[in-house]
Amino acid sequence: MSLTQHDLWLLSYYRVSEISGSLFFGRLARVLRPSAIQHDLSKHYADEAQHAWYWTDCIDRLGAKPLKLPNAYQDQYLEAAGLPANLMEILAITQVFERRVINQYAKHLALPDLAPEVTDTLDRILRDERWHVTWVRDALAGMEARYGRDHILATLRHHREADRAVYANTIAEHDASVAALFRYPTDTEER
Amino acid sequence: MNARTPIATEAVRTKIADTLTIPRTELTDDTVLTDLSIDSIALIEMALELEEDYDVVFQQSDLEGLRTVADVTALVEARLQAT
User: Fold this and answer.
1) Digit-coded pLDDT (tens) for A162-172
2) How far is B16 from chain A (nearest CA, A)?
3) What is the pLDDT of residues A37-94, one digit of tens each?
4) How many CA atoms lie within 13 A of A184 on its CB side?
5) ipTM greater than 0.85, yes or no?
6) Which residues of B touch A30 (CB under 8 A)?
7) What Å distances lie between residue A50 and A21, A53, A75, A100, CA to CA?
8) Is A147 in contact with B47 (Cβ distance < 8 A)?
9) Which residue ranges form the domains of chain B, and what is each CATH number?
10) Least CA distance to B47: which residue of chain A?
C-alpha cells in the first residue's frame, strides 16, 4: 500500500511533532531535580523520541521518505499560550497537548482502509499516550497544595483555549483532505 | 537594607550563566537576554532552575517582563521577599 502525498504529509507532521516533544521534554528532564516528576518526565521524553522513530520507520516501510517540515504543532502552541513560567504550567500545557494527540490519533485510527503499518504505529503510540495523560494528571493533582486547585484549573482552561486556536489554525493552513482528518472537534468529543 | 544583596545577585547570575551555557564573565546586570541567542525553551529552563534553587514560583507575566539579567535577579529577590 503506497502513501498519497496527503498521507505522507500527515505522517511526517506527526513525526516532526514527536521529535519536537522529545526535544522539549529532554531539555526539561535535564534541568529538573530528582523527584517522581523527573522520573516520569524522563520516561515521557524517551517515549516521544521512540514515537518519532516509529513514524520514521512506518513511513520507510510504506516505501516513502519523511518530509522535512519547518514547524511542529508545539511551535505554534507556545506562541498562542505564552511561555510556561513554572512546572505546573508546563504540565498543564502537556496535559492539554496530550489529550489533543490522543484525540487526533484515535480519530486517525478510526479511518477506514488504513495501511496496517499505520494502524500498528497508532496502536503502539496510543498505549504510551494514555499513560502520559495519567501521570501528568496525577502530578498536577499533587501540586494543588503549592499552586492551588483553582489556579491549576484556570491554567488548564487557558491552555485549552490556546489549543483550540492552534488546532483551528492548523486546519485552516492545510488543504481539504488533511482538513477533513483534522476536523475541529466539538466540546463533547474532547471530553 | 538594600533589597538586592551582592551574594544573591552573583548567585543568580551564575545560575543563569550555567543554565544558558554562557561564560559567567560574559554576563553583566545590563546584559539583554535576547542578545544571548537563546531560544524560548532556554528561558523556561532558566525559570525552572531558579524556581527549584530558590523555592519560588514565577508567573507567566513575570517571564514576559524580563529584559536584562538585572531583571531576572530582581524578580528572584522580589519572589523571595514575598514568601
Assistant:
1) 999 988 888 77
2) 12
3) 999 999 999 999 999 999 999 999 999 999 998 877 777 888 888 889 999 999 999 9
4) 11
5) no
6) 45
7) 11, 5, 20, 19
8) no
9) 6-82 (1.10.1200.10)
10) A85
